[in-house]
Amino acid sequence: MPHLPGGSSDRVARIVAEKLTAKVGVPVIVENRAGAGGRLAAQQLRNTPADPNVLMLANPAIMVVAPLVYKDVGHDREKDYQVVSHVSQYEFGVAVGAAVPVREFNHLFAWLRANPEKANFGVPATGSLPHFFALMVAEQANVKGEVVGYRGSGPLLNDLLGGQIPVAFDTLDTLLAQQEGGKLRILASSGSKRSPFAPNTPTFNEAGLKPAADNWNAFFAPASMSAARVAQLSAAIAELMKDPDTRRRFTESRLDPVPSTAEQTTAMLKTYRAQWAPVVQRSGFKLTHCTTTGEHDLFIGQETHKEVGYLTDVLSKKAVDHVHAHAANAKAGQPFFSACTAPPRTGPGRRATTPISSLRSSRTCFTSTAETSTATAR
To answer: Do 216 and 86 form a contact (C-beta atoms < 8 A)?
Structure first.
């Protein structure tokens, strides 16, 4: 499971795992292996020796987007994995925190144009589908802003609810749970028609924008798994997705269950790549390096022809060491990377610069050179 507990994918994995145990005759355990935008889990699956009982639940970020944005993604979707079954579909939503004075989607971008210092869009992962969906929406709305990558929906929602970031793009089911508690407002959803789970939420199309997009989950097996075992698991999972109780639990989680064959899932992957490759390429976003520990992810790459760095979660000593090590490779005095990966944390209109080695807060804007490393809370 390439994500932290608590998100949409994790809920899908746990529902299927519970039901699949009875069908395959062995306990099915969900193991969360978050990090590096899902590449840790993908590489672990690729390196799995012949084992009839190991699967990965993946989404488009891993199997479609990652090969488009990484210089070396570390795996080959067609050579290293076998498609098992597509199991769920769900939409994206855009939401604002309760303190943001915007109640309609049509007013959001006018507010951001009037307050450009607040034009930060939070997404659950750097290089994820919500990342590029946010870029696509901003481009169509003619708004310039920073996409702020988090390490999962949990940290993103914490900052949205806490007022550290004004706008978030995430899966609709994740946002709905918080809206019902009055902690945020969902302004629009990404489907071609209104979601049955949010009938009062307009689509982007209704607001005059054209993006229509959704997310999905599908199971993949390592290339080492026998074809017979893949076929057995594919049939078992497809049958589960027709089970009334499984469908009820998916619906209660605001997810659309999808019974699917391996062939149908393979065709879907080709469709998604054709849809998103132009969006990714137009953004100019390219990651050339990713380092992950249990504490952080460090991404280095290109976005619209500028060098960028994304540091998520705890800015630990290990993270700082990575920053300095990579900065040492730059020419003396030349910026190695410069990016904003967090909204202001020092209050409206205030700026503060601190040596990066002394920072202990997360998702901080920073610039690193071969001579100095500083961080700026903007």
So the answer is: yes
Distance CA 285, CA 282 (A): 8
CB 276 within 8 A of CB 260: no
The answer for residues whose C-beta is within 8 angstroms of residue 170's C-beta and 6 or more apart is: 92, 93, 95, 122, 123, 124, 130, 153, 156, 157
Judged by DSSP in three states, 85 sits in: strand
Q: Assess whether pLDDT exceeds 80 at residue 164.
A: yes
pLDDT level of residue 321 (50, 70, 90 thresholds): low
Residue 161 pLDDT > 90, yes or no?
Answer: yes
pLDDT at 143: 86
Query: How many other C-beta atoms can be found within 10 angstroms of the C-beta atom of residue 200?
Result: 7
The answer, yes or no, to whether residue 93 has pLDDT greater than 90, is yes
SS3 of residue 150 by DSSP: coil
44 CB neighbour count, 10 Å cutoff: 15
Average confidence score pLDDT of the chain = 75
Q: How far is CA 182 from CA 157, 172, 216, in A?
A: 13, 15, 27
Contacts of 206 (CB under 8 A, 6+ apart): 188
In this structure, how many other beta carbons lie within 10 angstroms of the beta carbon of residue 210? 9
45 vs 210: which has the higher pLDDT: 45
Structure-block tokens of residue 275: 């849809």
Determine contact, residues 60/322, Cβ cutoff 8 Å.
no
Instruction: Please state, in angstroms and rounded to a whole number, the distance separating the CA atoms of residues 189 and 215.
Output: 12
